[in-house]
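Lecture notes, continued. The same structure-token format from the folding unit now serves as the input rather than the output. Read the line below as a description of shape only.
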């Protein structure tokens, strides 16, 4: 840890020496180094959802949520059925893309924002679609980022606690925000 801090300090000093005008973004990029940028970063940045929803989405996008299949792979003896539909194995891909419960939410939301082109067949196509819709700084992209983070969080909470009211509350909140944005 101390070594990392010292290396970061060295990097910052080198950046300051190399550039006449040092900006926060140039310091950030130099600290970032040559690490690859994830394609879904547009969903994380400039997202006005609550931090807990963004953290859930961040874990979801990396397949790091403790879904039943992952818990079982760690040796836990648990029921691996999806808590929402009781039909399939609970995996990230099933829970957020293929589950009947989640599909119903997405269909309703897509109908509400009038985007009929939503494809729901697999995680890869789903990911490609959400990245495309979340990109940019226009109002629709901002609303989509907020909506996706909140819905992912709600699906996760629902899957773990069976708290159905959350979805309705989120839809109501989003509808009110949408009305405020439109008016
Ligand atoms: Zn399911």
């Amino acid at each position: 840890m101390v070594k990392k801090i010292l290396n970061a300090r060295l990097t910052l000093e080198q950046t300051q020496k190399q550039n006449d005008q040092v900006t926060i973004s140039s310091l950030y990029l130099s600290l970032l180094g040559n690490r690859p940028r994830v394609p879904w970063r547009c969903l994380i940045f400039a997202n006005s959802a609550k931090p807990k929803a963004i953290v859930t989405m961040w874990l979801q996008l990396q397949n790091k949520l403790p879904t039943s299949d992952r818990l079982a792979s760690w040796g836990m003896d648990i029921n691996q059925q999806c808590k929402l539909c009781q039909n399939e194995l609970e995996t990230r891909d099933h829970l957020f893309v293929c589950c009947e419960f989640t599909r119903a939410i997405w269909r309703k939301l897509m109908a509400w924002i009038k985007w009929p082109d939503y494809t729901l067949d697999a995680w890869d196509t789903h990911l490609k679609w959400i990245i495309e819709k979340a990109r940019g700084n226009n109002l629709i992209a901002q609303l989509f980022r907020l909506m996706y983070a909140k819905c992912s969080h709600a699906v996760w909470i629902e899957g773990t606690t069976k708290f159905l009211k959350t979805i309705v509350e989120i839809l109501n909140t989003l509808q009110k925000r949408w009305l405020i944005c439109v008016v």
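Point for the exam: The mean pLDDT is 84.
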